[in-house]
UniProtKB/TrEMBL annotation:
Occurrences of domain Orn/DAP/Arg decarboxylase 2 C-terminal (ranges): 18-354
Residues that bear N6-(pyridoxal phosphate)lysine: 49
Gene expressing this chain: lysA
Coiled-coil spans in chain: none
CDD domains tied to this protein: PLPDE_III_DapDC
Primary enzyme class: lyase
Alphabetic keyword roster: Amino-acid biosynthesis, Decarboxylase, Lyase, Lysine biosynthesis, Pyridoxal phosphate
Pathway: Amino-acid biosynthesis; L-lysine biosynthesis via DAP pathway; L-lysine from DL-2,6-diaminopimelate: step 1/1
GO MF annotation terms: diaminopimelate decarboxylase activity; pyridoxal phosphate binding
Any one GO BP annotation for this protein: lysine biosynthetic process via diaminopimelate
Record's protein name: Diaminopimelate decarboxylase
Assigned EC number: 4.1.1.20
Residue ranges annotated for the Orn/DAP/Arg decarboxylase 2 N-terminal domain, each copy included: 24-266
Catalytic reaction(s) noted: meso-2,6-diaminopimelate + H(+) = L-lysine + CO2
Amino acid sequence: MKNRTLLQIAKEHGSPIYVYDAETIIAQYKRLTNAFGKVKHLKLNYAVKALSNVSVLKLFNSLGSGLDTVSIQEVQLGLKAGFKPESIIYTPNGVSLEEIETVSKLGVQINIDNLSILEQFGTKHPNIPVCIRINPHVMAGGNTNISVGHIDSKFGISIHQMPLLLRIVENTNMNINGIHMHTGSDILDIDVFLYASEILFETAKHFKNLDFIDFGSGFKVPYKTGDIETNVEELGEKLSKRFNEFCKDYGKELTLAFEPGKFLVSEAGVFLAKVNVVKQTTSTVFAQIDSGFNHLIRPMLYGSQHEIINISNPKGRERFYSIVGYICETDTFANNRRINEINEGDILCFKNAGAYCFTMASNYNSRYRPAEVLIYKGKPHLIRKRETFNDILNNQIEMSL
Protein backbone atom coordinates (compact mmCIF):
# COMPACT_ATOMS: atom_id res chain seq x y z
CA MET A 1 0.00 0.00 0.00
CA LYS A 2 1.43 3.34 -1.07
CA ASN A 3 1.87 6.14 1.46
CA ARG A 4 -0.05 8.50 -0.81
CA THR A 5 -3.05 6.18 -0.83
CA LEU A 6 -2.97 5.74 2.95
CA LEU A 7 -2.72 9.47 3.56
CA GLN A 8 -5.69 10.06 1.27
CA ILE A 9 -7.71 7.42 3.16
CA ALA A 10 -6.86 9.07 6.49
CA LYS A 11 -7.82 12.46 5.08
CA GLU A 12 -11.13 11.21 3.67
CA HIS A 13 -12.26 8.98 6.52
CA GLY A 14 -10.35 10.37 9.50
CA SER A 15 -8.14 8.62 12.00
CA PRO A 16 -7.56 6.27 13.65
CA ILE A 17 -8.47 3.80 10.93
CA TYR A 18 -7.68 0.25 9.83
CA VAL A 19 -6.79 -0.41 6.18
CA TYR A 20 -6.50 -3.86 4.57
CA ASP A 21 -5.06 -4.88 1.22
CA ALA A 22 -6.94 -7.64 -0.62
CA GLU A 23 -3.98 -8.44 -2.88
CA THR A 24 -1.82 -9.36 0.11
CA ILE A 25 -4.55 -11.61 1.50
CA ILE A 26 -4.92 -13.38 -1.85
CA ALA A 27 -1.14 -13.81 -2.17
CA GLN A 28 -0.85 -15.36 1.28
CA TYR A 29 -3.75 -17.71 0.57
CA LYS A 30 -2.10 -18.85 -2.68
CA ARG A 31 1.26 -19.24 -0.95
CA LEU A 32 -0.24 -21.70 1.52
CA THR A 33 -2.20 -23.66 -1.09
CA ASN A 34 0.92 -23.91 -3.24
CA ALA A 35 2.99 -25.15 -0.27
CA PHE A 36 0.61 -28.10 0.10
CA GLY A 37 0.03 -28.60 -3.61
CA LYS A 38 1.04 -32.27 -3.41
CA VAL A 39 -1.92 -33.11 -1.18
CA LYS A 40 -4.96 -34.31 -3.12
CA HIS A 41 -7.54 -32.79 -0.77
CA LEU A 42 -6.56 -29.58 1.03
CA LYS A 43 -8.93 -27.32 2.94
CA LEU A 44 -7.99 -23.95 4.41
CA ASN A 45 -10.45 -22.73 7.01
CA TYR A 46 -9.80 -19.05 7.63
CA ALA A 47 -9.86 -18.26 11.37
CA VAL A 48 -12.62 -15.65 11.66
CA LYS A 49 -11.44 -14.37 15.04
CA ALA A 50 -8.37 -12.81 13.39
CA LEU A 51 -10.42 -10.32 11.34
CA SER A 52 -14.18 -10.79 11.18
CA ASN A 53 -15.44 -7.99 8.93
CA VAL A 54 -18.11 -9.50 6.67
CA SER A 55 -16.53 -7.99 3.54
CA VAL A 56 -13.23 -9.73 4.34
CA LEU A 57 -15.14 -12.98 4.86
CA LYS A 58 -16.77 -12.55 1.45
CA LEU A 59 -13.29 -12.20 -0.05
CA PHE A 60 -12.25 -15.52 1.49
CA ASN A 61 -15.43 -17.15 0.24
CA SER A 62 -14.54 -16.02 -3.29
CA LEU A 63 -11.15 -17.74 -2.90
CA GLY A 64 -12.76 -21.08 -2.05
CA SER A 65 -11.78 -20.93 1.62
CA GLY A 66 -13.66 -22.54 4.47
CA LEU A 67 -14.07 -20.92 7.89
CA ASP A 68 -12.84 -21.72 11.38
CA THR A 69 -15.23 -20.29 13.97
CA VAL A 70 -15.26 -20.24 17.76
CA SER A 71 -18.68 -18.76 18.51
CA ILE A 72 -22.21 -18.98 17.16
CA GLN A 73 -21.92 -15.32 16.16
CA GLU A 74 -18.90 -16.08 13.97
CA VAL A 75 -20.88 -18.91 12.38
CA GLN A 76 -23.71 -16.49 11.65
CA LEU A 77 -21.25 -14.00 10.14
CA GLY A 78 -19.92 -16.76 7.90
CA LEU A 79 -23.41 -17.67 6.71
CA LYS A 80 -24.15 -13.98 6.14
CA ALA A 81 -21.01 -13.77 3.98
CA GLY A 82 -22.29 -16.59 1.79
CA PHE A 83 -20.39 -19.61 3.14
CA LYS A 84 -22.15 -22.94 2.94
CA PRO A 85 -22.67 -24.52 6.37
CA GLU A 86 -20.61 -27.57 5.46
CA SER A 87 -17.59 -25.35 4.74
CA ILE A 88 -17.59 -24.00 8.33
CA ILE A 89 -16.01 -25.74 11.32
CA TYR A 90 -17.07 -24.66 14.80
CA THR A 91 -14.44 -25.11 17.53
CA PRO A 92 -15.67 -23.51 20.76
CA ASN A 93 -14.12 -23.75 24.20
CA GLY A 94 -16.15 -23.99 27.37
CA VAL A 95 -19.48 -23.07 25.77
CA SER A 96 -22.82 -24.60 26.72
CA LEU A 97 -24.23 -27.76 25.21
CA GLU A 98 -27.19 -25.64 24.07
CA GLU A 99 -24.99 -23.41 21.90
CA ILE A 100 -23.30 -26.43 20.31
CA GLU A 101 -26.69 -28.00 19.58
CA THR A 102 -27.96 -24.75 18.06
CA VAL A 103 -24.93 -24.54 15.77
CA SER A 104 -25.24 -28.21 14.79
CA LYS A 105 -28.79 -27.54 13.54
CA LEU A 106 -27.28 -25.10 11.04
CA GLY A 107 -25.37 -27.95 9.39
CA VAL A 108 -21.93 -26.76 10.52
CA GLN A 109 -19.07 -29.17 11.32
CA ILE A 110 -18.89 -29.56 15.11
CA ASN A 111 -15.50 -29.81 16.85
CA ILE A 112 -15.60 -30.81 20.54
CA ASP A 113 -12.71 -30.32 22.93
CA ASN A 114 -13.82 -31.83 26.25
CA LEU A 115 -15.05 -35.24 27.42
CA SER A 116 -18.10 -33.96 29.30
CA ILE A 117 -19.69 -32.27 26.28
CA LEU A 118 -18.56 -35.09 23.99
CA GLU A 119 -20.48 -37.63 26.06
CA GLN A 120 -23.56 -35.44 26.39
CA PHE A 121 -23.66 -34.53 22.70
CA GLY A 122 -22.92 -38.11 21.56
CA THR A 123 -25.66 -39.50 23.77
CA LYS A 124 -28.28 -37.10 22.39
CA HIS A 125 -27.06 -36.83 18.79
CA PRO A 126 -25.08 -39.96 17.86
CA ASN A 127 -25.72 -39.49 14.13
CA ILE A 128 -24.32 -35.96 13.85
CA PRO A 129 -20.69 -36.07 12.64
CA VAL A 130 -18.24 -34.71 15.21
CA CYS A 131 -14.58 -33.76 15.09
CA ILE A 132 -12.50 -34.19 18.25
CA ARG A 133 -9.92 -31.64 19.35
CA ILE A 134 -6.86 -33.33 20.84
CA ASN A 135 -4.33 -31.69 23.15
CA PRO A 136 -1.00 -33.21 22.05
CA HIS A 137 0.85 -31.72 25.05
CA VAL A 138 3.34 -30.03 22.78
CA MET A 139 4.39 -26.51 23.72
CA ALA A 140 4.37 -24.07 20.80
CA GLY A 141 3.72 -20.36 20.49
CA GLY A 142 5.60 -17.13 20.96
CA ASN A 143 3.77 -16.07 24.14
CA THR A 144 2.17 -17.98 27.03
CA ASN A 145 -1.19 -16.37 26.19
CA ILE A 146 -1.18 -17.96 22.72
CA SER A 147 0.40 -21.36 23.54
CA VAL A 148 -2.55 -23.72 23.76
CA GLY A 149 -1.12 -27.24 23.33
CA HIS A 150 0.76 -27.60 26.63
CA ILE A 151 -0.24 -29.98 29.42
CA ASP A 152 -1.98 -27.34 31.56
CA SER A 153 -3.93 -25.82 28.67
CA LYS A 154 -7.70 -25.54 28.92
CA PHE A 155 -7.94 -26.49 25.24
CA GLY A 156 -8.48 -29.95 23.83
CA ILE A 157 -8.80 -33.49 25.18
CA SER A 158 -5.56 -34.84 26.58
CA ILE A 159 -3.95 -37.66 24.62
CA HIS A 160 -3.55 -39.34 28.04
CA GLN A 161 -7.35 -39.54 28.24
CA MET A 162 -7.58 -41.58 25.05
CA PRO A 163 -8.97 -44.75 26.76
CA LEU A 164 -11.85 -42.75 28.26
CA LEU A 165 -12.43 -40.92 24.99
CA LEU A 166 -12.65 -44.19 23.06
CA ARG A 167 -15.04 -45.64 25.64
CA ILE A 168 -17.36 -42.63 25.26
CA VAL A 169 -17.32 -42.98 21.47
CA GLU A 170 -18.02 -46.72 21.72
CA ASN A 171 -20.80 -46.33 24.29
CA THR A 172 -22.59 -43.58 22.37
CA ASN A 173 -21.86 -45.07 18.93
CA MET A 174 -21.23 -41.52 17.74
CA ASN A 175 -19.85 -40.62 14.33
CA ILE A 176 -16.29 -39.23 14.56
CA ASN A 177 -15.36 -37.81 11.16
CA GLY A 178 -12.37 -35.62 12.06
CA ILE A 179 -9.39 -35.23 14.39
CA HIS A 180 -7.99 -31.80 15.24
CA MET A 181 -5.17 -30.14 17.15
CA HIS A 182 -3.84 -26.64 17.67
CA THR A 183 -0.54 -26.13 19.49
CA GLY A 184 -0.40 -22.32 19.55
CA SER A 185 0.50 -19.28 17.51
CA ASP A 186 3.88 -18.03 16.26
CA ILE A 187 5.34 -21.45 15.53
CA LEU A 188 9.05 -21.10 14.84
CA ASP A 189 10.26 -24.69 14.79
CA ILE A 190 8.50 -26.81 12.18
CA ASP A 191 10.06 -29.93 13.71
CA VAL A 192 7.97 -29.30 16.83
CA PHE A 193 4.90 -29.01 14.61
CA LEU A 194 5.81 -32.22 12.78
CA TYR A 195 6.33 -33.99 16.11
CA ALA A 196 2.85 -32.94 17.24
CA SER A 197 1.49 -34.11 13.87
CA GLU A 198 2.84 -37.61 14.54
CA ILE A 199 0.80 -37.67 17.75
CA LEU A 200 -2.25 -36.70 15.73
CA PHE A 201 -1.59 -39.44 13.17
CA GLU A 202 -1.33 -42.03 15.95
CA THR A 203 -4.60 -40.76 17.42
CA ALA A 204 -6.32 -40.91 14.03
CA LYS A 205 -5.61 -44.65 13.75
CA HIS A 206 -8.21 -45.25 16.48
CA PHE A 207 -11.03 -43.92 14.27
CA LYS A 208 -12.09 -45.78 11.15
CA ASN A 209 -14.50 -43.32 9.51
CA LEU A 210 -12.49 -40.10 9.32
CA ASP A 211 -12.97 -37.59 6.51
CA PHE A 212 -10.28 -35.11 7.55
CA ILE A 213 -7.38 -34.38 9.86
CA ASP A 214 -7.11 -30.76 11.01
CA PHE A 215 -3.64 -29.58 12.00
CA GLY A 216 -4.71 -26.17 13.30
CA SER A 217 -2.33 -23.36 12.39
CA GLY A 218 -0.21 -20.82 14.22
CA PHE A 219 2.23 -19.99 11.42
CA LYS A 220 4.47 -17.08 12.40
CA VAL A 221 4.63 -13.96 10.25
CA PRO A 222 7.51 -11.44 10.27
CA TYR A 223 6.90 -8.31 12.33
CA LYS A 224 10.03 -6.45 11.31
CA THR A 225 12.74 -6.56 8.66
CA GLY A 226 14.75 -9.76 9.01
CA ASP A 227 12.28 -11.28 11.47
CA ILE A 228 11.90 -15.07 11.61
CA GLU A 229 8.78 -16.59 10.05
CA THR A 230 7.44 -20.10 9.66
CA ASN A 231 8.89 -21.76 6.60
CA VAL A 232 5.56 -22.94 5.20
CA GLU A 233 7.18 -24.24 2.01
CA GLU A 234 9.42 -26.61 3.96
CA LEU A 235 6.55 -27.58 6.23
CA GLY A 236 4.35 -28.19 3.19
CA GLU A 237 6.94 -30.46 1.61
CA LYS A 238 7.53 -32.54 4.74
CA LEU A 239 3.98 -32.73 6.10
CA SER A 240 2.44 -33.41 2.67
CA LYS A 241 4.72 -36.40 2.19
CA ARG A 242 3.89 -37.78 5.64
CA PHE A 243 0.17 -37.11 5.21
CA ASN A 244 0.05 -38.92 1.88
CA GLU A 245 1.83 -41.89 3.43
CA PHE A 246 -0.70 -41.96 6.25
CA CYS A 247 -3.65 -41.85 3.83
CA LYS A 248 -2.19 -44.80 1.94
CA ASP A 249 -1.88 -46.81 5.16
CA TYR A 250 -5.33 -45.66 6.31
CA GLY A 251 -6.84 -46.87 3.06
CA LYS A 252 -8.66 -43.64 2.27
CA GLU A 253 -7.86 -40.22 0.79
CA LEU A 254 -8.49 -37.86 3.69
CA THR A 255 -8.62 -34.07 3.63
CA LEU A 256 -5.73 -32.17 5.18
CA ALA A 257 -7.15 -29.10 6.91
CA PHE A 258 -5.59 -25.98 8.38
CA GLU A 259 -7.03 -22.95 10.19
CA PRO A 260 -4.79 -20.01 9.29
CA GLY A 261 -5.78 -16.60 10.55
CA LYS A 262 -2.81 -14.36 11.28
CA PHE A 263 -0.83 -15.86 8.40
CA LEU A 264 -3.48 -14.76 5.92
CA VAL A 265 -4.37 -11.27 7.14
CA SER A 266 -1.72 -9.88 9.49
CA GLU A 267 0.60 -8.42 6.86
CA ALA A 268 -2.39 -7.24 4.82
CA GLY A 269 -3.43 -4.69 7.43
CA VAL A 270 -2.14 -1.36 8.68
CA PHE A 271 -3.40 0.95 11.40
CA LEU A 272 -3.24 4.70 10.83
CA ALA A 273 -3.20 7.16 13.71
CA LYS A 274 -2.58 10.91 13.91
CA VAL A 275 -0.03 12.50 16.23
CA ASN A 276 -1.81 14.89 18.58
CA VAL A 277 1.13 16.00 20.70
CA VAL A 278 4.93 15.71 20.62
CA LYS A 279 5.97 15.90 24.27
CA GLN A 280 9.56 16.22 25.50
CA THR A 281 10.43 15.14 29.05
CA THR A 282 13.81 15.06 30.75
CA SER A 283 14.76 11.80 29.03
CA THR A 284 12.10 10.88 26.48
CA VAL A 285 10.35 12.30 23.44
CA PHE A 286 6.75 11.10 23.34
CA ALA A 287 4.58 11.07 20.25
CA GLN A 288 1.03 10.97 21.60
CA ILE A 289 -1.50 9.66 19.08
CA ASP A 290 -5.28 9.82 18.71
CA SER A 291 -5.69 6.20 19.77
CA GLY A 292 -4.85 3.77 22.55
CA PHE A 293 -4.99 0.14 23.59
CA ASN A 294 -8.75 0.38 23.16
CA HIS A 295 -8.03 0.16 19.41
CA LEU A 296 -4.78 -1.83 19.33
CA ILE A 297 -4.14 -3.89 22.45
CA ARG A 298 -1.58 -6.39 21.16
CA PRO A 299 1.56 -4.48 22.28
CA MET A 300 0.16 -4.22 25.81
CA LEU A 301 -1.38 -7.72 25.96
CA TYR A 302 1.26 -9.77 24.17
CA GLY A 303 4.28 -7.50 24.11
CA SER A 304 4.03 -7.62 20.33
CA GLN A 305 6.07 -5.27 18.17
CA HIS A 306 4.48 -3.46 15.26
CA GLU A 307 6.79 -1.58 12.92
CA ILE A 308 5.78 2.10 12.94
CA ILE A 309 6.42 4.43 10.00
CA ASN A 310 5.81 8.15 9.73
CA ILE A 311 4.14 8.23 6.32
CA SER A 312 3.76 12.01 6.52
CA ASN A 313 7.55 12.45 6.62
CA PRO A 314 9.10 9.19 5.34
CA LYS A 315 12.42 10.82 4.39
CA GLY A 316 12.86 12.92 7.51
CA ARG A 317 15.82 12.67 9.85
CA GLU A 318 15.47 9.67 12.17
CA ARG A 319 15.04 10.35 15.87
CA PHE A 320 14.08 8.24 18.87
CA TYR A 321 10.46 8.34 20.07
CA SER A 322 8.16 6.54 22.44
CA ILE A 323 4.73 6.17 20.85
CA VAL A 324 1.92 6.39 23.40
CA GLY A 325 -1.86 6.59 23.35
CA TYR A 326 -4.53 8.62 25.07
CA ILE A 327 -5.77 6.01 27.56
CA CYS A 328 -5.40 6.92 31.24
CA GLU A 329 -3.25 3.89 32.07
CA THR A 330 0.07 2.71 30.70
CA ASP A 331 -0.62 2.82 27.01
CA THR A 332 2.65 2.37 25.17
CA PHE A 333 2.94 1.11 21.60
CA ALA A 334 6.71 1.51 21.27
CA ASN A 335 9.59 2.53 23.51
CA ASN A 336 12.64 4.45 22.26
CA ARG A 337 11.90 3.55 18.63
CA ARG A 338 13.90 5.08 15.74
CA ILE A 339 11.36 6.81 13.45
CA ASN A 340 11.59 9.58 10.85
CA GLU A 341 11.10 12.96 12.55
CA ILE A 342 7.56 13.35 13.87
CA ASN A 343 5.56 16.56 13.97
CA GLU A 344 2.13 17.19 15.42
CA GLY A 345 -0.50 16.26 12.83
CA ASP A 346 1.63 13.57 11.15
CA ILE A 347 0.05 10.20 10.33
CA LEU A 348 1.82 7.15 11.76
CA CYS A 349 1.36 3.77 10.11
CA PHE A 350 1.44 0.61 12.24
CA LYS A 351 2.24 -2.47 10.17
CA ASN A 352 0.97 -6.05 10.69
CA ALA A 353 -2.37 -4.73 11.89
CA GLY A 354 -4.61 -7.15 10.02
CA ALA A 355 -4.91 -9.87 12.66
CA TYR A 356 -6.28 -9.62 16.21
CA CYS A 357 -6.32 -5.84 16.09
CA PHE A 358 -9.75 -4.46 15.23
CA THR A 359 -11.40 -7.67 16.49
CA MET A 360 -9.97 -6.98 19.97
CA ALA A 361 -10.90 -3.28 19.96
CA SER A 362 -13.25 -1.91 22.60
CA ASN A 363 -15.08 1.19 23.75
CA TYR A 364 -12.85 1.65 26.80
CA ASN A 365 -12.92 5.28 28.00
CA SER A 366 -16.14 5.49 25.95
CA ARG A 367 -14.09 6.04 22.81
CA TYR A 368 -15.45 5.09 19.41
CA ARG A 369 -14.09 2.07 17.61
CA PRO A 370 -12.40 3.06 14.33
CA ALA A 371 -13.48 2.68 10.72
CA GLU A 372 -12.17 -0.03 8.38
CA VAL A 373 -11.21 0.18 4.70
CA LEU A 374 -10.48 -2.66 2.26
CA ILE A 375 -8.40 -1.90 -0.84
CA TYR A 376 -9.82 -4.22 -3.49
CA LYS A 377 -8.61 -4.20 -7.09
CA GLY A 378 -6.72 -0.99 -6.37
CA LYS A 379 -9.73 0.92 -5.02
CA PRO A 380 -10.37 1.74 -1.33
CA HIS A 381 -13.78 0.64 -0.02
CA LEU A 382 -15.15 1.72 3.35
CA ILE A 383 -16.25 -1.57 4.97
CA ARG A 384 -17.07 -0.26 8.45
CA LYS A 385 -18.13 3.22 9.49
CA ARG A 386 -16.57 4.89 12.49
CA GLU A 387 -18.80 4.63 15.52
CA THR A 388 -20.80 7.58 16.82
CA PHE A 389 -22.10 8.66 20.21
CA ASN A 390 -25.39 6.93 19.40
CA ASP A 391 -23.46 3.65 19.09
CA ILE A 392 -22.08 4.19 22.59
CA LEU A 393 -25.60 4.68 23.96
CA ASN A 394 -27.12 1.86 21.95
CA ASN A 395 -28.58 -0.85 24.23
CA GLN A 396 -28.10 1.29 27.34
CA ILE A 397 -31.30 1.88 29.31
CA GLU A 398 -31.48 5.26 30.98
CA MET A 399 -33.19 5.21 34.36
CA SER A 400 -35.47 7.96 35.59
CA LEU A 401 -34.00 9.17 38.89
